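Weekly structure sync, notes
Attendees: PL, DS, HV (note-taker this week)

Item 1: Mitochondrial splicing suppressor 51-like C-terminal domain-containing protein
DS walked through the input record. Source organism listed as Durusdinium trenchii. Sequence as pasted into the shared doc:
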Amino acid sequence: MNTGDDALASENWRLAAKLYTKELAAAKENLSTGSGDLSHFGLALAGRSVAFREMGRARAGLPAEPKVLAASLADARAAVSLAQQLTSNSTLALKAARALNAALAESGEGPMEAQQACDALAGLGFDEPVKHELRQVAKDGIDTAGLCAEMDASAKDGESPGTFRWPRRMVLPTLPSGPSLAAAVTEKGWGPYLRQRGGEQMVNLERSKLAMMLDALSFPLSLAWLLLQEPLVRIASGTLHVVVLGATSKAEVRILEDSDYWEELGRVMAPQCKVKLHFVGPEISAESADVHQTQPPCATQFFQAHSDLNSSNTICAVFNGGFGNFVSSGRDELFHSWLQDLTFLADQHVLCAFFCANDYADLKGEVAVHQLLGSCFALRPRQNPFAMATVYSGEDSSEWFSGNAFVYAVCGFERSARRVELSTAEVLQIAQSDHAIVHEAPLPVRLLESERSSSGSTGVPPVSTVGEMKPMDGGWRFEVPLADASCMQAADVQISDTQLSLVLEGLRRVVPWPTPVDSASARASFSARSCKLVVKATSQ
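Item 1 (cont.): predicted structure, written out as tokens:
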């Protein structure tokens, strides 16, 4: 926002403050005649506090106005005092508590006063949802309902406000200088990382700023933690491409543009490899060299346009994709918009990491989708040690979400388990049962080893990356020469009507059939005499 826009916004809030002042004067006059409503007076105080806060806060082109912020804090305190007297008005209690919390934060004061006020209001005779919201503000010092309302209001038609609910007006804290050591990214989560990265000063950062920082850092550090899991992934030297699929301008791209947080991933992984990020999704407003606005099927189109990216040098990360949420919401549009890409990535044997915002809907639905696709799980669903710090509540007290709270990873698929066509009813049936995950990917998933083998530095038995496609009577024959029979250990061959996917000693390649084939009749075998893998398929 430029200076002119900042000045206009400040002036609009100044006009709002004048209207609230008139409303307060009218309410005061009515009270003096015995016909007024004290709760109406309190709501006007809370409203003017918000207007003063927005009018007086620092903007990109304007400095803060301390006197105006002090007036905002005074109004908020008065509104809270009235809310404590009027124990039957939950609307006033919530608005006053949020106004006080925000005014204290904008004035640079700690959250203790707001926490004490929220605790006192929660002790009054309100309904449980009201108490829950007050306790949330008291616990985190964060007005989660207010943040949700602001992000919901700014969301364009057809777009989700997402799980990263920090408006762009709130500046991401600057990370301290210093190393980002892989040894600090552990199962123990945020505590060791913060102490190593910035010491007690970083741990004791103002509560709301710390929560915003952790929510944003959750994206790169969740992925860093997964890539450091030795039983899961083995990474050789080279450049690892990370495709952030389903990225949005509000979350992943905003963090890229407004901070250096994504560089933490590269810093942590530096001893093993270089990291090249690609952000891909339909909800991206501006493109750049690494940011790609793409309509579904996003992954299919992106990989077709970037033929140098493949399963041996690329990992896909999906943060809070939400395609399993229909288990709770009943709406399956998002599920169907993801389905083609999920199938494509499984066919390509690309390692995919998925992070979910809750377990009762998102995680349950996503796992059911993967089970019907026959996906092979490289990491079973579990809690993420680097989940976002902020927890949001839904309209129902049993509903909640916290970005990146759970994680799982898949790589490849089991043909015998795949459903050719998936219906929402089938997925719901699986999601509502306790159907066990039975297909697991061979571990570790090896990344960048093809680059090492080309330089002769790997101890893995060499696998020729060159195969030969030959016509045969009624179809096609594909031959891959191997160094010896040991290369067939843990080999995986996946055949579809349009392509052939080979996994040999961790090296992967996808070969299109020259013409469509009948995959049901295809056969793969190893010829000991010629030391070749031979795949035959008849044409359709």
